[in-house]
Amino acid sequence: MQLSITGRHLDVTDALKEYVTSKITRLERHYDHITNVHVVLAVNKVVQTAEAIVRAGHHHEIFADAEADDLYAAVDALSDKLDRQLIRHKEKLADHRV
Question: Residue 84 CA to chain centroid, in angstroms?
Answer without folding.
Answer: 11
